[in-house]
UniProtKB/TrEMBL annotation:
Keywords of this entry: ATP-binding, Cell membrane, Ion transport, Membrane, Nucleotide-binding, Translocase, Transport, Zinc, Zinc transport
Region of interest: Disordered: 231-270
Protein name: Zinc transport system ATP-binding protein
Pfam families reported for this sequence: ABC_tran
Organism placement in taxonomy: Bacteria, Pseudomonadati, Pseudomonadota, Gammaproteobacteria, Oceanospirillales
Residues covered by the ABC transporter domain: 4-219
Bias type Basic and acidic residues, positions: 231-247
GO function terms (MF aspect): ATP binding; ATP hydrolysis activity
């Protein structure tokens, strides 16, 4: 049984169709990245998955043992509130100091434990948020652009950390990222979203699909190809990977996938 299954999900808010007919499945231990242009519904999809938002139609099925660690795109911190990183990590439940230290160290933030939360840089705060999300040892880690604000070196370390987390906890990782070339290296599967799922599959196949190229342009495709080609020890996909080809849901033409129309959303709703 998969960890999570979405079936024909639609989300309509204030008359806006944000998601239309979105179906996807998440397996244990896989790293999946959602990519898509600004406003394509990525954060909405994540909020739906963590249960912060109800679908207007469709069905969400969660494994009964599913536990989710969530790192939001941004949090508001009151600069007048004196909270150290160590204290923040222990909220809302008390934690063993050793667990807090281990989680921060693993996220590359071990030296921040006594610092004021409001005084952290954007990149430092992201590391702390990831460490906090992992304290519960979730079966699914959900990251909404958690690498924003990180420099190149920190981004590379961030993805190594995510890979270690997956190995150590055996958890699935679902993330949103705009760093397409890095995403391609770090993910088992990529889901391309533009109100609906345009295409999904192994990174190489998605990058070669017409839907991806019409959304992100040829330059991104070339950047991805270049990045993968120069990665030491990287093997090009063989014939066996054909079975995991990108699945297209938006036709085979080169035109950009159309924005969802309100009349299309929730057509299965009762
Ligand atoms: N409560 C709401 N009512 C109406 N429209 C909304 C609501 N919430 C989000 N939207 C709209 O839904 C669309 C998708 O928003 P969302 O934040 O999910 O996109 P995103 O892909 O995460 O964008 P970005 O890459 O810019 O973070 C946007 O056009 C947004 O304005």
């Amino acid at each position: 049984m998969s960890l999570l299954m979405l079936d024909a999900i639609g989300v309509v808010r204030n008359g806006n169709v944000i998601l239309d007919d979105v179906s996807l499945e998440l397996a244990r231990g896989e790293i999946v990245t959602i990519v898509g242009p600004n406003g394509s519904g990525k954060s909405t999809l994540l909020r739906l998955i963590i249960g912060a938002l109800a679908p207007s139609c469709g069905r969400v099925t969660r494994d009964e043992h599913l536990s989710i660690g969530y790192v939001p795109q941004r949090i508001q911190i009151d600069p007048t509130l004196p909270v150290t990183v160590g204290r923040f990590m222990a909220l809302p439940h008390r934690r063993h100091q050793s667990d807090i230290e281990a989680a921060l160290t693993s996220a590359g933030a071990g030296d921040l434990i006594k610092r004021q939360l409001s005084a952290l840089s954007g990149g430092q705060l992201q590391k702390v948020l990831v460490a906090r999300a992992l304290l519960e040892r979730p079966s699914l880690l959900v990251l909404d652009e958690a690498n924003q604000g990180l420099d190149h070196r920190a981004t590379a370390e961030f993805y190594r950390h995510i890979d270690r987390v997956r190995t150590e906890l055996g958890c699935a990782v679902l993330m949103v990222s705009h760093e397409l070339h890095v995403v391609m290296k770090a993910s088992d599967r990529v889901i391309c979203l533009n109100g609906t799922v345009c295409c999904q599959g192994r990174p190489e196949r998605v990058a070669a699909s017409p839907e991806w190229q019409s959304l992100f342009g040829i330059e991104e495709r070339d950047a991805v190809a270049f990045y993968r080609h120069t990665e030491p020890g990287h093997a090009e996909p063989d014939q066996g990977e054909q079975a995991h080809d990108a699945q297209s849901h938006a036709g085979s033409g080169h035109e950009a996938p159309a924005a969802p129309q309100q009349e299309r959303a929730c057509r299965h709703a009762g």
